[in-house]
Amino acid sequence: MVRLKINGSVQELDIPSDTPLLWALRDTLGLVGTKYGCGITQCGACTVHVDGQAVRACQTYVGDLVDAEITTIEGLSGPVADAVKTAWIAADVAQCGYCQPGQVMQAVALLAREPAPDDDAITTAMNGNLCRCGTYDRIRAAIHAAAGALGTAAADTAPAEKG
């Protein structure tokens, strides 16, 4: 029996501790937003957050996740996630859409730790998240747009300077 906290809910799963998180999510819990791409951590389609960090679920074992906070695309929420999702739609990023859950999860993790990334930071963070349709320019534009929206939102809520 493995006990995991996924999307804020504790789940007790009767699976071996060496089961990849990807299969626990998809086959056991029916959370199919996390995609299977390569199975060897090379494509990023299975990206989820573990304690706020982007990780590949295909090679992360459930036995290693006791006391961890796991977030899938289905449970992704908050200002950064909302900004990324809005920017993704506005930039018309998705074509086939298969890689998009992993791309979004990676982008949210990037913006959560680096609110105003430059092109090099985006390239570094998104490296390993493959898009067979080649929408990399739109992904980059959407990340910049989300960062801009988050910066604007932060400026709008900051206390006014007394002068």
Automatic annotation (TrEMBL):
Chain ranges of the 2Fe-2S ferredoxin-type domain: 1-76
Lineage: superkingdom: Bacteria
UniProt KW Metal-binding keyword: yes
Pfam families linked: Fer2 (PF00111), Fer2_2 (PF01799)
GO molecular function list: 2 iron, 2 sulfur cluster binding; isoquinoline 1-oxidoreductase activity; metal ion binding
EC category name: oxidoreductase
Membrane-spanning segments: none
SUPFAM superfamilies, per database record: 2Fe-2S ferredoxin-like, CO dehydrogenase ISP C-domain like
Keywords, alphabetical: 2Fe-2S, Iron, Iron-sulfur, Metal-binding, Oxidoreductase
EC code(s) of this entry: 1.3.99.16
Organism from which the protein derives: Roseospira goensis
Name the record gives this protein: Isoquinoline 1-oxidoreductase alpha subunit
